[in-house]
Every structure is written in C-alpha cells, then in structure tokens.
Amino acid sequence: SGVEEFKLGTERFWFNGFSNTLSITNRTMKPLGSIRYNKSLDDGSLSSVSSIRTTEVGLKTRFAYQEAFVAGEFDRISLGTEYPILELNMGFGLKDVFGGDYNYTKVALSVSDNIKLGTFGRTEVKAQAGKYFGTLPFTLLEIHNGNETYFFDNAAFNLMNFFEFISDEYASLMMTHHFEGFFLNKIPLMRKLKWREVVTGRAVVGSLQDKNKAVLELPNNMYELTGPYAEAAVGIENIFKIIRVDALWRLTYLDHPDIAKFGIRATFEIQF
Known about the structure:
By secondary structure, the chain is mainly beta. The chain has helices at residues 188-193, 210-213; strands at residues 2-15, 18-30, 38-40, 46-48, 52-64, 68-71, 76-80, 85-93, 104-116, 122-133, 142-143, 165-167, 169-178, 196-207, 223-224, 229-239, 243-250, 262-268.
C-alpha cells in the first residue's frame, strides 16, 4: 500500500526513565501493485475501495528505571538500563475528524530486558501483546513484521514474508542469547579472532475476528494465525567487530507458498 502521512507530536520526560509521547496522525492509504481494497457486497459482487483514511490520537508511555542517555541538541540516545523496559502504546481512531473513516482503539504492551548471566553471556528478551477494538479492514490491523531481504532485522520475523500474517489480537516473544565467546573462546584461533556465538528464537500467536475479515477481502497469501509462527537462528557475531551472520530455520507454516524454510542473513552491529 502507498501511505501519505501527516503527524504532529510532543514528548515529555517527567523524570529519568519515565516519559509520555502524545501524537496525532492523519494517514491515507491507497492500494499499489497487485494489492486491491475489495469489499464484498450483499449480492456476492466486489466493490473496489480507492483509499482508506484514518485520524489517530496516540499516547505512548515508557518506563525504563535508571536508564542512561547521551543528550544531543535535538535528541537523546539511550544507553540502556539494567532493569526491564515497559512500553504501553495506545491509539484512538476518530471517525469524521479530518476525514477519518473509522472509530477504533488499539493497545500494545511490551516488556524488554537484557539479562546478564555472567560467564554464560546475556539474554535479550522482548515480549509483546496487543489488541484492536472496533471493526476494521486488514490495512489497519496488526500485519506482523516479516523480512524478505538478506539483512537480519532485529525487530522482524526474518523468514516470514511481507504481509503474510495478520491479527487483531496477538502476543509475541523474541529471545536472543549472546554467549559472548563461551564456546568459541575455548578454540585458540577463535579466541584470537574474538568471534562470538549467538542463538535466536522468535514466535507469535494471534487471532482474527470474522467481523474484521468481512470488511475487506484479504489479499492472496495473507493469512490469519491458526497456530504459533516460530523460527530459530544460530549465528556468529563480532566478525571484524561489526558483522553478524545468522543461519535461520522456519519451524511452522512450512506449507505456505513462496516461503523460505532456511536462510542466511547478515547485519552490521557494533559490539561493546
């Protein structure tokens, strides 16, 4: 879909680690390429929808106890915290305000943490759950973040196709364990290279109500989650201090067309 968006927002830091962001967004979506916004009529025929517009008020609440920052002239860069980070995102769709087509409420809660395990390394964990309230077309629901490129995306399911799965209620878990050389340091050559082993597991479950499926026809090769989607990866990081390479396996929904059951992905990252 093509998206035209106008957004205005403000952020307030109440005290160290606790902030709110208030925004208002007007967004217009139009179908592009093979995607069509088709609505089923009572006589069984299809009616094409040329565009969808929303006006949404968003409120983000973030709590990261004892989070450290580096402050610039216009922004702040987080250096992280030893404690879990909580984020609550809420969005309220306003029908007939600046041309908005739908009333709705969406809520997403996430918890992320970096758990240090001494000589065994550290584990990054992010759990998220969300729900949409209202009757909405697929374009406004949770289209789970896939990745069809050759670059590893820390925020995506890297063997899930773009626009493959959609939900109006969902929960996901992403875990990455950095062994920090626990195994490779026992091999003299590997210890000299300072390569580090890493393993990743990701899964998501969700559901899609019939009332939302009836608003617009789902595009071909877009599915609801009837069971968990899961994938796993094993990789090496700190290659030349900036490169990470992962071998990935898709564990579920292996019968879907045009998917990759196995893949190699790379990314650039700086290790401290």
